[in-house]
Fold this sequence. Notes:
By secondary structure, this protein is α+β, with helices and mostly antiparallel strands. It folds into three domains: 3-150, 2-Layer Sandwich (Beta-Lactamase); 211-293, Signal transduction histidine kinase, dimerisation/phosphotransfer (DHp) domain (Helix Hairpins, Orthogonal Bundle), CATH 1.10.287; 299-470, Heat Shock Protein 90. It is built from nine helices and 13 strands. It starts with a helix and ends with a strand.
Amino acid sequence: MNIRSQLSILFIGLVSVILVIFAGLVYYSAAKSREHEFFKSLEKEALTKANLVLDVQMSAGTLQRIYRNNRSTLSEVEVAIYDTAYTLLYHDAVDIDMVKETRGMIDSIISQRIIRFYNGQYQGIGMALTYEGRCYAVTAAAYDEYGYNKLATLRWSMLFFALCSLVSVAAAGWLFAKKALSPVSAMTHTVQAISATNMGLRLRYDNRNDELSELADTFNQLLDRLQHSFEAQKHVVSNISHELRTPLTSVFAELQLALDRERTIAEYQRSITQATNDVQRLIKLTNSLLDLAKASYDESEIAFTMVRLDELLIEARARVLASSQHEYTVHLIVECEIENDTFLTVRGNEYLLSVAFVNLMENGCKFSPNKQSNVALTYNNTSVIIRFSDIGVGIPPEELSLLFTTFYRGSNKKYADGNGIGLSLTKRIITLHGGSISVVSEQYMGTTFTVELPHLHNTSQSSTMNTNSYH
């Protein structure tokens, strides 16, 4: 069942309950009013006939004839008069006797002075009357045909108008729900039209002061993030396809040429060497992509521990030197005396930080004529500061803003191989750890990357400058 139907049913149910309660209260009030008025009428009739019998001393036959004549056309009141000894002094119709008075009833009337009662559909009253020093009990009873007819008319009228009201309410509720939910329907049509080919569509909602406006704004923000992510993924997939196609094509060409005809051992060795280099490029690209995926996780999904950055830099340096094919050199310098381990300890993921440091060291070595990267470690009151510098080809000023873009390779790519993932991966890792990375470069003079990571020590302490080197 859709929301429109649910709202309509809820609206009809609510109004129905209100109508039933209101009609019930009106009917109950009318019934009580009829009862009270008829008791008053019975009381007046009883007093009138008691006066006619006791004071005027009108003959019983005359009164009885009047009663019987009236009873044939309307519901006449039947009156009976008793004395305290339970002696019947007058009765309108003994043969009919609607009340059927008993000695106990007469005693109750004398003692209570007035009683009201029902005998089936007949409504009756008993009252004590004093005349010339003597006490009498007078009863009067009748069927309130006129009052009950009025109640029946009221009941059917309320039922008719209630049904008409419910029909009107149902129609109004349906239109109201349709009007209230029309923005949701419009949003639904817009959302259904959004696809990979037109992700620029956005929800529009004119009223800016209600919950639907907030929902539309929130959904539009979600669409903005999804569009950005989708476009980034398209860009990444396109670049990955290009990066994978080049070495795969090269490996296939080398192997195809080697199989075309008989070749010398030296030629086979050359083909195998070329194919091996291309496979290594693929392996490095695959590893970089895996690291990039890891660095894209939420912080809650990554295991963080306490990491000593000086020790991690030493391990990263060893990895660079061990995997280098070009006689890389990395100088590691700790510029301050370590008085407290917490100054160089951060909360982070050891593997990801090692990947970032290795990338920065290799980057400095690749683009330096002397294949050397200089790493300086220091700290201040809040952060550990690591500078990765080289005296290489540098970076043109116009390319600095694009340096951390995934798969971007600047004009210096002619100096070294790469896939454009390393620096963007490094920035993601540093950002994931709550740090920052900046770069200063002068073309043909060198480049310096500065990484700052929050350490575990937040108090101010003086540090004695000292230089320790690892070569």
